[in-house]
Each structure stands twice: as C-alpha cells, then as structure tokens.
Amino acid sequence: MRTYGCQMNVHDSERLSGLLEDAGYVRAPEGTAEGDADVVVFNTCAVRENADNKLYGNLGRLAPMKTKRPGMQIAVGGCLAQKDRDTIVKRAPWVDVVFGTHNIGKLPVLLERARVQEEAQVEIAESLEAFPSTLPTRRESAYAAWVSISVGCNNTCTFCIVPALRGKEKDRRPGDILAEVEALVAEGVSEITLLGQNVNAYGSDMGDREAFSKLLRACGEIEGLERVRFTSPHPRDFTDDVIAAMAETPNVMHQLHMPLQSGSDPVLKAMRRSYRQDRFLGIIEKVRAAMPDAAISTDIIVGFPGETEEDFEQTMHVVREARFANAFTFQYSKRPGTPAATMEGQIPKEVVQARYERLVALQEEISWDENKKQVGRTLEIMVAEGEGRKDGATHRLSGRAPDNRLVHFTKPDEDVRPGDVVTVEITYAAPHHLLAEGPAKAVRRTRAGDAWEKRNAAPAEKGAGVMLGLPGIGAPAPLPAPTGGCSLV
C-alpha cells in the first residue's frame, strides 16, 4: 500500500488493508520491493500540483516489473482517481483497477473482476455508497487509532478540490462513533483522533450545532481512553462550547490544529474562507485563556492569486500574534477545476518562493522559542513506534507529549513498549522536537502496551497482514466472472 495525502487517506488505507485481508491477501514482509508483490495499491491525493506527476512516475516505474510478472495487479484509488477516472488507464494501460473515494469497499471485487476478465476495471461512484467505517479495518497502530466522524465537506474554498472529490458532508450517528471508540479501547487502544474533513462542523446533518462538543464530552466518559484528539477544524465552526469541552474534559488533549490559510482579509475573502483575521485571533485568544498550555498548529498558503506584499505582511502579523507551535506551510499551486486556478493575479514563482522562505524562517524562530518554554517541565510521554529515526544509535525512545510535541528521551532500564507512558523532565528544545536526557522519573505499563506486545508476538496468520501478498502467498483462488452489479457485502 502506498498512501499520499491527508489523514483521511491514511485512514482509508487502513480500511483498504482490512478489506483485502478479509479477501485473503497477506501483507508482504517489510522491505519487499513493489515489483515482488502480487498487488500494489496507490491511494492518491489531488491537493498538490505535483500529485499527478508523482502517481504517473510511480506507475511508469512499475510497468517493466509488471511485464516480467503478468499476474501482478496495480490498483489506483483516492482523490486523484476520483478526478482523473478513465485518464489513468489511458496514460497507464497496465493499471488493472481504478476506484474512487466513494466506493473503496469495491476494491477486492474489482481486483478479482480484472483478473478474471483480463481487462482494466474503472468504477467511480458519484456519491457515498456506505459510510467507510462500516468496512473492515486493519489499523496500523495497536495503541492509537483514527475514528472517522464525518466524510465530505460543505465549504467552497476556491483553492480546494476536495469537496468535489469527497462530496458533501455526511455525519455518522454519535452512538456509532462511541461504539467504535469503546470497541477500540476494549482492544487496548488508549489514544483516538476524531477525524473529519471539517471535523467541528459535525452535527450539520442532525441540526445540532453543539453535537461536536457533546461528542468530546462523551469521549471523556469512556473508561480506559487516555487521550482524545481531533483534526481538522474550521475557524467558521469553532464555537465556545468546543473550547469549554476541551478545557473541561480531562482526556481531551490541549492541542489544536486551526488552519489559517492567510492572515489577509481580502485574500481570505478571495479564498471564500468565512472568517477574517480578527475572528481567527479571537479564537486563539479564547483557547489560550481557557488552556494556557495549549499547543496550536496551523496551515498557511503563500502566494494565493492576487496576494500583495501588504497581504503577505498580514499573514506574518498573525503568525507573530498567534505564536503557533508549528505550521504546515505551502506554496499555492493551481488545481484544475478550482476557481482559484483561473483567477487573475497569479503570483510569479520567484515572489512566492521568497515569501515562503521568510514565513518559514519566522515560524522556525517562533517554534523554537515556544519549545524552549517546555524545558524544565515534567511531561507524560506516550511511547511511539517509528517516531525517532535515530533512536537506535542514540539509545533513546520517542513519543508524544499530551500537546502532541515530539519528545526523544533516554531509554529506561526497564522494558518499555509502544503505548506505555514514561514520565520525563525536558532538558533541551529544538525547533521541531524536545529532548529529555536524564533518567525517566516513572514508567507506567499500559493496556495499550500490552496490545502492542500481543500484536507483535502473535504468529503470522491469515488476516494478520495488511494488504500486499508475495507471489503465491495468500492470493485468492480464481472465481467465476461476476454477473451484473456485483458488490462487496
């Protein structure tokens, strides 16, 4: 499985993995080359300008590998597949399956149909066939999990193609969400992230403007659930009841990702963002008043059509005022099919690059200053898997603080597993991480750590993998060609 894009795509890939596992496929061992797998699935993103180039470059690289192994199958799904549809098999005729964002549950059937009929299967649904959370899921983590509360988006931001590809917002029933969370906790998960394209607009389907804050408070009642996060909210829908729920619910973390996009009112208007600078900074002020320790991150686009130097300086002003813990910064790129792509006042690349570098330098300085304030604090770190690339060489472990800051810490003498909690004192700060170089103050073994240990100790069985099968291993036996509208049940 190759996944590009946002957290929604990452969670969709977990579902695709679960679907294929149920169909008999087994994960290829770590490090297996794509050309040695029976099935390679690309779950694509269409947000960035180079998304097309990245996909077709990868498909081109696989073409000669597939020629050598005729039984190999390649599937392309996700937002770019929803957008490009038949174009994919025209440009890459060796692709076997193309499926969209609304019918990911069809992947096993489409793979089988392509194998039996020996021709590409392109199936793009125009609307959601079933809420994705009803599908089998093979979660990548034993201790932390995504929980989707809605899909789609009702906004019409002029730079964004996602609503056209994901559709209008559709909310899950609160009872279904909480049942999934409770089931995950029973399996050992101790941290969940509530996920939606516009997560705090939750409730629009039900006519309840306070549905999201109620959901946060309900998560606080679930015994054994230690950390609750959510992403991504929209400033338009961020209300005082949500701030109160965050502040008053002990297991809801004081971490907030609040996309700014631009600090300029004229640019925000051109983007069709339904808030202005004062409204955004007002939210930040209220959050900090209720939760002084809150770590706030953001998204910013530089070089939107028509952005003047004065507009850009307004963005820099908001960054200085908000003092984000970190920011995901992007240079504007045209996306065909969006209103912004045809707007006048497209900014020259060199101007966008210069502004981008100034913004990154400012945010780097602020991130470092904010991290330095953590030095001397004692924090509970949930041990993570794969967060510290140098942990082996430095004899450290890595994990996340309650506010989601990345912390590298000295490995305790006792055995510590991902999902366990280690209490440490922060001794050093860098712009993008913290260090705790002294001995751990405490180690708490958790049910989440037990779940991780159980998963990794279990012998390989059918369904224990995630998706890609080695030649001859776990591939399903041929089935008769389906007749009519065959669907996954």
From TrEMBL:
Span of domain TRAM: 372-440
Reactions this protein catalyses: N(6)-dimethylallyladenosine(37) in tRNA + (sulfur carrier)-SH + AH2 + 2 S-adenosyl-L-methionine = 2-methylsulfanyl-N(6)-dimethylallyladenosine(37) in tRNA + (sulfur carrier)-H + 5'-deoxyadenosine + L-methionine + A + S-adenosyl-L-homocysteine + 2 H(+)
Residue intervals of the MTTase N-terminal domain? 1-116
EC number(s) on file: 2.8.4.3
Q: Does the keyword Transmembrane helix apply?
A: no
The record's Gene3D superfamilies line, in alphabetical order, gives:
Methylthiotransferase, N-terminal domain, tm_1862 like domain
Q: Which SMART domains does the UniProt record give?
A: Elp3
Enumerate the UniProt keywords alphabetically: 4Fe-4S, Cytoplasm, Iron, Iron-sulfur, Metal-binding, S-adenosyl-L-methionine, Transferase, tRNA processing
Give the primary localization class: cytoplasm
Tagged with keyword Transferase:
yes
Q: How does it assemble?
A: Monomer.
Q: What is this protein called?
A: tRNA-2-methylthio-N(6)-dimethylallyladenosine synthase
Could you tell me which species this protein originates from?
A: Streptomyces eurocidicus
The organism's lineage?
Answer: Bacteria, Bacillati, Actinomycetota, Actinomycetes, Kitasatosporales
